[in-house]
Amino acid sequence: xxxFRFIQHIQSHLKTSFNEVDxxxxxxxxxxxxxxxxxxxxxxxxxxxxxxxNFYLLILIEKGMKKAIRNDKxxxxxxxxxxxxFDKTTMEQVGVHGAFIWIxxxxxxxxxxMELTEIRKxxxxxxxxxxxxxxxxxxxxxxxxxxxxxxxxxGKINVYEYIYFLxxxxxxxxxxxxxxxxxxIKKANSDS
Length: 192
Known about the structure:
By secondary structure, the protein is mainly α. It has helices at 3-24, 29-33, 43-71, 77-83, 88-92, 116-136, 159-191; strands at residues 146-149, 155-158. A two-stranded antiparallel sheet has the order 1-2. This is DinB family protein.
């Protein structure tokens, strides 16, 4: 795989996913507050969850990015670039709502304590943070450090893949928000 094209793909995916997430902040209050019949989260809660998950993943991503850049001095980047192989199929399942069982840590669950305007601002900053990390690792340095990801048994993933995971996680919840909205519309139509 061409690592530089992969970086461009991640940048594009981030922008698309975060743009889609941002649109949900403009939904009307009924759509934001609707709780699905099966007792899932409201769109408001999903938006908070996306922010919280990004917050904790970005801590790991920043540490990994710093270590990857330091490793550039000790590892053979050219060799890593030549030997890099991306497991697209397994990773991209992360972006598919309901593709596998996902038990999230409690600290990533929404508490309904934040204003939507604050969450929106923070998610926008998180996008810029991700894009900044990709720019700092534009020569392939993100391959030089791996961290274990237990979700979907991904195993050891590099810093680029961690950033892509973050974007796929948002994509997963975009589907969930769309499903909530469709269910709310159907319920409103059947009630009238």
